[in-house]
Write a structure and sequence with these properties.
The chain is of the alpha+beta class and about 600 residues long. It has 17 helices and 17 strands. A hairpin with a 2-residue loop joins strand 1 and strand 2.
Length: about 600
């Protein structure tokens, strides 16, 4: 017998204690070598081997009496004894040469130097699983091992298998504990780094001037809000966590609906950017610019709404100030352009007026003495005709036929009756022509009157129209018949010379709009509220719809190049606005054009 029962239990206990050491993990080769030596000593064997299952293969973990090169290798097909034990899952007692055993009759002979006198080989079995073999040999004592040893040794082999498996489990447990300990240390390191990173992130977020926030979809419950919220809103951060509706409640009522609509649209759009105002507790209004994004998980389910909100009050004020400055500059530029245009037109009209006034003055002198001379001439002619009539009365009492004959012949030659009648008609027509020239000169002098803002006066607008018609008669007489439909107008407080310029521009434009022959109708009347109106309607070609909105713009003209400056209507528009009036336009292509001027009867000029 190898061991008695007490010896076996002691031996297995020592084997178990050996397995509890850390030697397998620290040095696996040495550990299996120690196990095998312990087994050999316990079984009083000379040589042996320990085979273990490793990654689905049976590997020689340790061997005594084997070449060192065999350690760590899988068992080969020549290991017939081990193969037989593993395949049959039975213990084996072998004495003498293997080729003399009927179980290995096909195995080739081995050299005598490697043949033990007796050998025991047990499978290491755990349940239904073979985990290896133990083989022990006696080199010189064939009777050392018996069948009884083989059978009793199987119990020891099972205990050894259990002890080895327990060793391996203990090794795995220690390994897992070490791995867990290492993992725990790594987790602690990772957690510490995460906490440090989170603190740095929070420090960075709290150092921002913009509000960074995150909230739950639907409930709008805050998940995160940095410290900038308190600086911008004037309310503690905790108030927003305690009351999810607080942020919407401080939005300016004029912007609240827009903010709510954007939040409602966010699930569909995914992101939004908007500007709105909030009211701080002290009543101060702040402008905010907000960018927000709707975040979903990998399944498309809503997770949160993330956003960043910046205070743009300073930028908004600067923008408003810039807009105000731009508006003021634009107004100043517009006024400057208008003044420039008016100055150009005024200079032009002033030059024309001075020239016209000079011409009118030069014409007025000869017209004056022509009128005077025609009056005297008419008186002389009347006296001469009266004298001729007296001579004719003498013909009836004169009997000198020889002297009367030539006189009667000359009277017939000159057609004295017609001459007496026609000479007076010629004088009357010449007098009327001179009077008309005088009237035109007077209208020209009135129209060309150059003055300033101190020329406000009460004027008859219909008289101004008639005066202007005389001036532009040459422009209109070949193109249009003038139809006057005047109403009963009161006198108007105005700048007559400037309104004359407006009437002239409209009448000349009306004449130019008529291509062949047409009519220009001038109407006038009154409106409620102490206002008068004047309409100038032509039967010209009309104005295209796309040009109507630009017709009063400076330098805009529909006339061919070189035919107009584009300043007439612009200056007219400014003159009417200066009188607190309106100038309206109604035009259709092919249907003519109507300009309607509406003026207050009494205008408070600047400084009054």
């Amino acid at each position: 017998m190898l061991f008695n029962e007490n010896k076996q239990l002691q031996w297995i206990n020592e084997l178990y204690q050996l397995g509890q050491s850390d030697s397998l993990q620290e040095n696996p080769v040495q550990f299996y070598r120690d196990i095998l030596r312990f087994i050999l000593e316990g079984l009083d064997a000379d040589t042996g081997s320990l085979i273990m299952l490793d990654n689905e293969r049976y590997v020689i973990k340790s061997g005594v009496g084997l070449p060192e090169a065999c350690i760590g290798r899988p068992i080969s097909d020549h290991s017939a004894v081990i193969r037989w034990v593993l395949d049959n899952r039975r213990a084996l007692l072998l004495k003498g040469k293997i080729d003399q055993d009927p179980r290995f009759k096909n195995h080739g002979p081995r050299s005598d130097s490697r043949i033990p006198a007796a050998a025991l080989c047990w499978p290491l079995i755990l349940g239904q699983r073979s985990i290896g073999t133990i083989c022990v040999n006696k080199l010189n004592e064939p009777s050392a091992y018996t069948e009884a040893d083989l059978e009793s040794g199987q119990l020891m082999a099972n205990a050894i298998a259990l002890a080895i498996d327990n060793m391996l489990l203990n090794i795995d447990r220690r390994k897992h504990i070490q791995e867990l300990a290492g993992t725990n240390r790594q987790l602690q390191i990772i957690r510490r780094r995460y906490e440090e990173s989170e603190k740095r992130l929070l420090d960075i977020l709290n150092s921002l001037d913009s509000v960074v926030w995150s909230m739950e979809p639907g409930t709008l419950k805050l998940l995160y809000l940095n410290d900038a919220a308190e600086d911008i809103s004037g309310r503690p951060v905790r108030d927003f966590f305690e009351s999810p509706d607080l942020w919407l409640s401080i939005v300016d009522p004029k912007d609240r609906q827009n903010v709510e609509n954007r939040l409602a649209d966010l699930p569909a759009t995914g992101s939004h950017k908007l500007a709105y105002r909030i009211i701080r507790p002290d009543g101060e209004q702040r402008w905010l610019y907000q960018s927000m994004r709707y975040v979903r998980d990998e399944n498309g389910e809503p997770l949160r709404i993330d956003g960043i909100t910046a205070d743009i009050t300073g930028h908004k004020k600067a923008e408003d100030l810039l807009k105000q400055r731009n508006t003021e500059l634009q107004q100043a530029l517009t006024q400057l352009q208008e003044l420039q245009q008016q100055l150009m037109q005024s200079e032009k009209m002033s030059s024309i007026g001075q020239l016209a006034a000079g011409v009118a003055h030069e014409i007025n002198n000869p017209i004056g003495y022509i009128n005077s001379n025609l009056t005297a001439l008419k008186n002389y002619i009347e006296d001469l005709l009266e004298l001729v009539e007296m001579y004719e009365n003498l013909d009836s009492v004169c009997s000198d036929a020889e002297r009367l004959g030539p006189l009667q012949a000359f009277k017939r030659q000159i057609d004295l009756p017609f001459l007496k009648e026609d000479v007076l008609d010629l004088l009357n027509e010449s007098r009327e022509g001179a009077d008309r020239v005088k009237k035109i000169v007077q209208d020209l002098k009135d129209f060309s009157h150059v003055g300033g803002d101190d020329d406000w006066q009460w004027a008859d607008l219909q008289a101004c129209l008639d005066s202007t018609l005389n001036i532009v008669h040459n422009e209109t007489k070949y193109k249009a018949d003038i139809i006057k439909e005047y109403g009963n107008l009161p006198r108007v407080w105005c700048l007559p010379h400037q309104l004359n310029q407006v009437f002239m521009n409209l009448l000349v434009n009306a004449a130019h709009a008529i291509e062949d022959k047409g009519t220009i109708t001038i109407r006038s009347g009154t409106e409620d509220g102490g206002r008068v109106w004047i309409e100038i309607t032509d039967t010209g070609k009309g104005i295209a719809q796309e040009h109507i909105t630009k017709i009063f713009d400076p330098f805009f003209t529909t006339k061919p190049v070189g035919k107009g400056t584009g300043l007439g209507l612009s200056v007219s528009y400014n003159i009417i606005k200066k009188h607190d009036g309106e100038i309206r336009l109604d035009s259709r292509v092919g249907g003519g054009t109507t300009f309607r001027i509406v003026l207050p009867v009494k205008h408070n000029e600047p400084g009054k």
